[in-house]
Amino acid sequence: MKATSTLLLLLVSLAHAGIAQQAVRFEDFFIDSTLRIDYYHTGDAREEVLVVDRMLRQGPWAGNPRNPLDSFGYGHYYVKVYDLSSEALLYSRGYDAYFDEYRTTEPARRGVKKTFHESVLVPCPKKPVRVVIEARDAKNQFHTIFTHQIDPSDYHVMAAPPDPRDRIFVVLDSGVPHDKLDLVFVAEGYTAEEADTFKADLEKYREILLTLEPYKSRERQINISGIFRPSAQSGVTQPREGISMNTVLSSSFNALDTDRYLLTEDNRSLRDIASAVPYDVLCIIVNSTRYGGGGLYNDYTIFTAHNAFSQTVFLHEFGHGFAGLGDEYYTGDVSYVDFYPRNVEPLEPNLTALLDPSRLKWKDLITPGTPIPTEWGKAEYDSLQKAMGALGRKRHELVASLEKQGTSRDSVAAVKKEMDGQLKVMRQRVSDILTDGPQKGSVGVFEGAGYTMQGLYRPAVNCLMFSNEQKAFCKVCERAVARMIGHFAGESQ
Ligand SMILES: [Zn+2]
């Protein structure tokens, strides 16, 4: 359904407080085309500045004209488009950026500045508009960090040229982009000879997505395509291993100095390739067997295709990238320093600081009779995690020392076997707490979430956003994902 052929009455709030809402028709303000604004985002923990790189007009608009405003409130940034004459807010969308993660690291706190290339996509306006980007502070209050007046007739707004190297594969066609969630997978680290491997991977991850609820029951609201541009080399860059690969997106492990964190900083190439199709959400499939990935809300999701855990890594990271879900786990080697400030309610729909239990985000989903907060065996889980970490380190040191002393291979193997047996027992107990405790399947308020041991809570003992051994979302995450699909499908929120 084209916006130009449908009467779309949209209630758009006005920027000036006190002025009554006004009905605005999408087609009065926009054409069915996408305006892409590329910019550089520079700064450290204390300051940030945005500088325009270029503006491009590309393909049809993928978003739903019935839902031009983003009322979810997720993401640390918001792009907003205002009509110049009436000041009416015409379009908005929240998003996260690599920069926002960088600013929470130790170097950024020391004042080391870094520049990232980023893009925002908005529907192409008919008349000059004001584009504003707002960033949240530590208390999640918005501040304008960028204002730019854009005249769509300005000759600097160039059409994005197609690239003859790109091949497009459509693997799920449910209808015109306006009424669907349009998902695109971009190939990374596949050579020209590996086009068939990419196609097989594309079909595999389409199936994986569509077997998980709520995607499964909403398949008819989703379009999926893939874009293949060959890389010069096969694989991905792994700095700590000294492996440097020439790939189309220059993706790399050890993002933010975290071993398994995989991201790309080549946003310009990513957005150039993706411009071949209309898209709401962007995924990168990396041709590698190593464990890892990443997901930035409304920016992109990235994962390796050929690891034993790739399925859950993809679904977990896509939960961040598409639906703005937060990490429910709180152990591990992430490099953020106080990613969630104390006494501030997180933006994510599946995390809470429980500052006001009467306004709990998932209050209506709580399993009747469940106490708030909810006891789940945390003390035992935490002590097991600590003991497993200590035993793992002891095993590593002991084996190294025995090998150095020239101990026989059989004796070393016996030591390894003994310690592995102890680790296995502890891992089994951890698994029992998560999958077989008295609160299994309940929705409650469970302490330990968002890289934080105390003071942050999650909705279930276990969830795809908590553990890579869990293959389903908790009820709260499932509902949040369903709402996001519905947003793109034109359902009112
Ligand atoms: Zn969850």
Short description:
By secondary structure, this protein is an alpha+beta fold.
Lay out the secondary structure.
Blueprint: E1 9-12, E2 22-25, H1 26-29, E3 30-43, E4 48-58, E5 77-83, E6 89-95, H2 98-102, H3 106-109, E7 114-125, E8 129-136, E9 142-150, E10 157-159, E11 167-172, E12 181-188, H4 195-210, E13 222-228, H5 267-274, E14 281-286, E15 293-296, E16 300-304, H6 310-323, H7 378-404, H8 409-436, E17 446-449, E18 452-458, H9 475-489
Parallel strand pairs: 4-10, 12-13, 12-14, 14-16
Antiparallel strand pairs: 1-2, 3-4, 3-7, 5-6, 5-8, 8-9, 11-13, 15-16, 17-18
Bound molecules: zinc ion.
Written description of the protein model:
The chain has 493 residues and is of the alpha+beta class. The chain has 3 domains: 3-159, Peptidase M64, N-terminal domain (Immunoglobulin-like); 167-323, Collagenase (Catalytic Domain); 357-481, no CATH class. Helices cover 25% and strands 26% of the residues. The strands form 5 sheets. A 6-stranded mixed sheet has the order 11-13-12-14-16-15, with helices on both faces. Strands 7-3-4-10 form a 4-stranded mixed sheet. It has a 4-stranded antiparallel sheet with strand order 6-5-8-9, with no helix packed on it. Helix 4 (195-210) links the parallel strand 12 (181-188) and strand 13 (222-228). The longest helix is centred in the C-terminal third of the chain and has 28 residues, at 409-436. Bound molecules: zinc ion (ZN). Zinc ion is lined by residues 328, 350, 459-460, 463, 465, 473-474, 476-477.
